[in-house]
């Protein structure tokens, strides 16, 4: 084998030039036809056959094009590919320097190899696969040959190499300089066709994308979506059959959700088996596509039996998450023919669509669950948005309010008479006092009792609880209200209150008489000379009767409050003196406990009902004694302050103990009528704090608790210095609070 420029005799050269002179004209005519051919599939065969036809010495022509994998043969003339090497032919890629074509590519110059030992010998170094191909082609050619490889350059880009094998002893029939000109035209035609092809492909991709997007957007549900996507994709690709597999991450399984032109039995290797056992496990695991021939060792024999030879498995991705796999099957050409760049964006689109449908289905499922729960609640449930417009009402709410239709459009606060809600005294609720308005204001409340008067003048009582619905930013987005009918309970409670009022009334006079005599006997016994045998018994009698009288008085106070007959006798009172008196009175009951009084000054005057405020202080201090350990300290503090709502001058009284404390959820409840914390053994009716709050509020003051469980309690009372006119809302609040659990 030698590498040389062809040596021609002088006469041969003259003949050549003459031929070439006509030749270049001739070639220019031929090349004009090439430029008119835009489709690569038409241009490439035309190119090679032009050279095979018009250069008589040429035996074979191969057009090699530069691809990412190396030089790839895309067209040939002068020989038929023997079937034994057809697969090698499809796969052969020359690296730079491999074969004559690879050498021309590497050196970017015309290479001519001339020799007597056949085609394969002239190709020089090559990979085993290329050698097999060269050998098979060489078998069809004489041993004495000239191989010419001419690089095809379009501008600065080397697009490929044209390789001709011609009889060694015949002139090629074209002068090298002319050939290089023609090669330039060939390269331009190829580039042109490649650009055209790219354009055509991107147009096709766009169309394909459009078709898929249309099928996604018109699909009614997931099965419909996957089926129509698969049909569209199969039309766009050279695949003969395919399947769409949906990935269930919880079960780690794939499910064949759509299939086309293939029997479901051939797809059994994918369906409902662990992902790792399927032939496309790595596609799901790594989210990368796989293009490969089918292999029975991979469990794909059923597909092979169905007549398929190769597969393309493409992940359906939603962001980084695999939601499924598109599996396409076809002949061995499939892996090469499939347009990955077209399919990947489609697969992403489908991946997202699947994720969306799933999300939608999940949310629908949750919604159904939510509705079932809400509907099965026996209490009325109402939800409203931040504007107070009803967004949900369960059946119980409709039934309880006996409204055929609830207003869903108008903010509830603007239709207060929609439910005709009233306070327990029968006054219509103002928009501000509607349960919704309270919850939207940010209030959380329980057992807010209201009344509804029905057209037949009967009354129904409801207990409302409500809370604002707050988003992550802490903004109120709406409100949730639950309510139940407590008419029966309310009636029983009224009956009970009436009974207790009568009983208390009847008990008071005899008890008062017993108390007077008990006290008298006690005093006599104390003053008697000699032994005091009965002193202990009489002391207990007197204390117990006094206690019974206090209970009865409390009950009578409650009935007075209910009847609106709780009148206050205002007078100027020095609270410091009053507190001192109460402390002195309570001291005998305090045992070892230390009772301290701290006052900002010796005199803190307020206008109040001295007897009632004494009642409040007695109750708070006796509770502090009742609910705190024997050796602890109880402090009563007084100082000037202002009211929380209107800054009016006031006196702040605080009673602190070192008892068990009151948990936050109970702090509101302890003020309810008859409320006693569970497990408290100390005696009482649960009326002390209720009456204390009533009395303080009737004075226009405020009362609340500051306490942490296990760290003692402090009861705070703010009493206005001047007598105050009570506002309507306060009066209303009082009527809500009148209610309590039996
Ligand atoms: P009574 O003391 O008669 O039960 P009250 O209305 O005075 O009724 O008090 C209601 C409930 O509040 C009590 O049963 C008790 O559980 C709780 N309580 C009141 N004062 C205190 C306190 N200082 N420490 C702890 N719990 C208290």
Stated plainly, the CATH topology of the largest domain is called Beta-Lactamase
The CATH class name of the largest domain reads: Alpha Beta
Across the major sheet, the strand order is: 1-4-5-6-2-3
- Number of helical segments? 21
Largest beta sheet, briefly? 6 strands, antiparallel
Number of domains: 5
Q: In CATH terms, what is the architecture of the largest domain?
A: 2-Layer Sandwich
Shape: rod-shaped
Strand percent estimate: 15-25%
Report, as a whole number of angstroms, the end-to-end distance.
115 Å
Number of strands: 24
Calculate the mean pLDDT score and round it.
88
**Helical content class:** 40-55%
What's the CATH H-level superfamily name of the largest domain?
GAF domain
Small-molecule components bound: adenosine-5'-diphosphate
Radius of gyration: 50 Å
Which structural class fits the helix and strand makeup? alpha+beta
Unreliable runs, pLDDT <50, ≥5 residues? 1-21, 727-742
Pfam families: GAF_2, HATPase_c, HisKA, PAS_4
Subcellular location: Membrane
EC number: 2.7.13.3
GO molecular function: ATP binding; phosphorelay response regulator activity; phosphorelay sensor kinase activity; protein kinase activator activity
């Amino acid at each position: 084998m030698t590498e040389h420029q062809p040596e021609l005799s002088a006469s041969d050269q003259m003949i050549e030039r003459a031929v070439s002179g006509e030749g270049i004209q001739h070639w220019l005519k031929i090349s004009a036809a090439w430029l008119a051919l835009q489709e690569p599939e038409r241009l490439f065969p035309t190119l090679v056959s032009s050279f095979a036809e018009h250069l008589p010495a040429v035996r074979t022509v191969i057009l090699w094009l530069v691809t990412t994998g190396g030089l790839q043969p895309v067209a040939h003339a002068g020989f038929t590919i023997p079937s034994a090497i057809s697969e090698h032919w499809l796969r052969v890629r020359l690296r730079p320097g491999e074969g004559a074509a690879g050498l021309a590519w590497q050196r970017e110059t015309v290479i001519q190899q001339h020799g007597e030992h056949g085609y394969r010998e002239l190709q020089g170094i090559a990979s085993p696969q290329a050698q097999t191909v060269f050998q098979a082609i060489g078998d069809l050619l004489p041993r004495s040959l000239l191989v010419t490889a001419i690089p095809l350059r379009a501008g600065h880009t080397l697009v490929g190499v044209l390789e001709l094998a011609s009889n060694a002893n015949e002139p090629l029939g074209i002068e090298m300089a002319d050939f290089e000109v023609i090669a330039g035209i060939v390269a331009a035609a190829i580039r042109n066709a490649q650009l055209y092809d790219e354009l055509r492909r991107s147009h096709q991709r766009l169309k394909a994308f459009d078709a898929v997007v249309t099928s996604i957007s018109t699909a009614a549900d997931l099965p419909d979506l996957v089926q129509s996507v698969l049909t569209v994709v199969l039309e766009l690709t050279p695949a003969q059959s395919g399947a769409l597999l949906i990935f269930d991450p919880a079960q780690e399984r794939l499910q064949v959700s759509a299939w086309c032109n293939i029997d479901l039995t051939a797809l059994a290797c994918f369906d409902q088996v662990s992902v790792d056992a399927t032939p496309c496990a790595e596609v799901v695991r790594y989210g990368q596509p796989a293009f490969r021939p089918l292999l029975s060792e991979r469990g794909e024999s059923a597909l092979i039996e169905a007549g398929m030879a190769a597969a393309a498995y493409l992940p359906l991705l939603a962001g980084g998450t695999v939601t499924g796999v598109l599996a396409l099957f076809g002949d061995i050409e499939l892996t090469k023919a499939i347009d990955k760049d077209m399919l990947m964006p489609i697969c992403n689109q489908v991946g997202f669509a699947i994720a969306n449908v799933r999300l939608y289905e999940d949310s629908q499922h949750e919604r159904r669950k939510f509705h079932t729960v809400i509907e099965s609640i026996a209490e009325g449930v109402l939800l409203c948005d931040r504007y107070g417009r009803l967004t949900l009402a369960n059946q119980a709410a409709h039934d309880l309010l006996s409204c055929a239709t609830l207003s869903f459009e108008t903010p509830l606060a603007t239709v207060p008479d929609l439910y005709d809600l009233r306070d327990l005294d029968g006054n219509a609720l103002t928009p501000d006092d509607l349960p919704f308005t309270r919850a939207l204001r940010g209030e959380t409340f329980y057992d807010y009792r209201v009344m509804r008067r029905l057209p037949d003048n009967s009354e129904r009582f409801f207990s409302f609880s409500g809370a604002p619905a707050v988003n992550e930013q802490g903004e109120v987005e709406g409100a949730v209200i639950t309510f139940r009918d407590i008419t029966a309970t309310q009636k029983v409670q009224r009956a009970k209150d009436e009974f207790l009022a009568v009983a208390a009334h009847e008990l008071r006079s005899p008890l008062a008489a017993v108390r007077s005599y008990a006290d008298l006997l006690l005093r006599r016994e104390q003053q008697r000379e000699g032994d005091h045998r009965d002193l202990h018994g009489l002391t207990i009698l007197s204390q117990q009767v006094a206690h019974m009288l206090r209970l009865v008085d409390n009950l009578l106070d409650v009935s007075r409050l209910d009847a609106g007959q709780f009148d206050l006798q205002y007078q100027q009172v020095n609270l410091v003196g009053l507190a001192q008196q109460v402390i002195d009175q309570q001291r005998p009951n305090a045992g070892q406990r230390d009772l301290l009084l701290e006052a900002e000054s010796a005199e803190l005057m307020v206008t109040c009902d001295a007897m009632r405020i004494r009642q409040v202080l007695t109750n708070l201090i006796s509770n502090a004694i009742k609910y705190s350990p024997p050796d602890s300290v109880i402090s009563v503090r007084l100082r000037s302050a202002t009211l929380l709502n209107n800054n009016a001058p006031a006196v702040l009284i605080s009673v602190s103990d070192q008892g068990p404390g009151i948990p936050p959820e109970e702090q509101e409840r302890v003020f309810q009528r008859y409320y006693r914390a569970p497990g408290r053994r100390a005696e009482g009716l649960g009326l002390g704090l209720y009456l204390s709050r009533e009395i303080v509020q009737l004075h226009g003051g405020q009362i609340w608790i500051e306490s942490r469980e296990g760290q003692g309690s402090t009861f705070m009372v703010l009493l206005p210095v001047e007598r105050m006119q009570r506002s309507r809302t306060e009066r209303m609040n009082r009527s809500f609070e009148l209610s309590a659990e039996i």
